[in-house]
Specification:
Layout: E1 4-8, H1 19-36, H2 45-53, E2 58-59, E3 62-67, E4 79-88, E5 95-102, H3 111-125, E6 130-137, E7 147-148, E8 157-158, H4 162-169, E9 173-184, H5 190-202, E10 206-211, H6 220-233, H7 248-261, E11 264-272, E12 277-286, E13 293-301, H8 310-325, E14 331-337, H9 341-350, E15 353-364
Parallel strand pairs: 5-6, 13-14
Antiparallel strand pairs: 1-3, 2-4, 3-4, 4-5, 6-15, 7-8, 9-14, 9-15, 10-11, 11-12, 12-13
Helix pairs in contact: 2-7, 5-8
Organism: Cellulomonas fengjieae
Domain N-acetyltransferase: 60-135
Protein name: GNAT family N-acetyltransferase
Amino acid sequence: MTTWSIREVPVSETVDGNWLLHGYTDAINDVIVSTWGNHDFERSAAEILGSMHDQQYDRKPRLVAVADDDADTPDPARVLGYSAMILPLQDNTHTAHVDLGVRPGHRRQGIGSSLYDTSLALVREAGRTQVTASTDHSVEPPDGPGTLAPSTGAGRVAADADGPRFALQRGFALEQVGRYSVLDLPYDAELIAKRADAEAQAGPDYRLVSWQSHAPQEWVDAYALLLTRMSTDAPLGGLDLEEDVWDAERIRRTEKQWQDRGLELLVLAAEHVPTHTLAAFTCFMEVPTTSVFVHQDDTLVLREHRGKRLGMLVKTANLQRLAVERPSIRRVGTWNAQENSYMLAINVALGFHPAGGAGEWQLKLG
């Protein structure tokens, strides 16, 4: 019978010699491939370590379950499962997010429970009163017996799937379902017409501005406002989350973290010319593990600027930019709350197709 110990992944200067980090990375990637059937979400040890170095705004403990056999051997294959925690330190300090997984060949042995119990003890020690977690699925189940809908009523998960069953057994409530969608490139030629129509409706009061990972000083404060509003303007379902405030200092620190992780952003925003402020934005996140896939990261139109097709405008313009600046990309993946009908309609019109989703869970600690 396999026995294991729970250990914390050290935050080393480099990946060299940090076998727990390599085992943590391998375990994450095993879970990703078993869940999604592809390598689009895979991560590298260097990228993960880069995310752990800066903990100014979030504490980020990383735990692993390590097989006790060959206890003196620093072998990444001994890592059987992992837990990643995010403990906000500025806003939403009442909550913690926990993500855990077990390699497919080692499930149903209690490893996940052991990681969860250790993680929950750490969360309680940090004074948190709420835990959030996500469960991924590559295909949303059809409506019917054996499915569970969130408090929003939009989307479903299979109640007897491993992740939902694990969450339900521990008292979590399903508060939201997200849809994962993929756009295959190159894009349809109709995209150009969609951009032209959106530009015509937006009118001369709006113009496009763009940058890569480093926001121009001219726009850094306006960009911080967009990121702050992203935390509350995007649908949250029944999740008990408050405003997450961004400012110029946080943006600069995060940009340094992107660099340390080997990530690149392609940001495109719509300026409201009369007020010289940013009304909307979207961005792609390019990761170091692939040259054929990018994440469609945040997209937001400020409430006071909605109804002018700015969402369609910034997304079509950034897709055209992606084709020019990153011609090797063949897939774009994006997430949306199932109740976010406006943004989902834009994505469907652009050619995104459903490719899975996630349940968003919440547990109130007594």
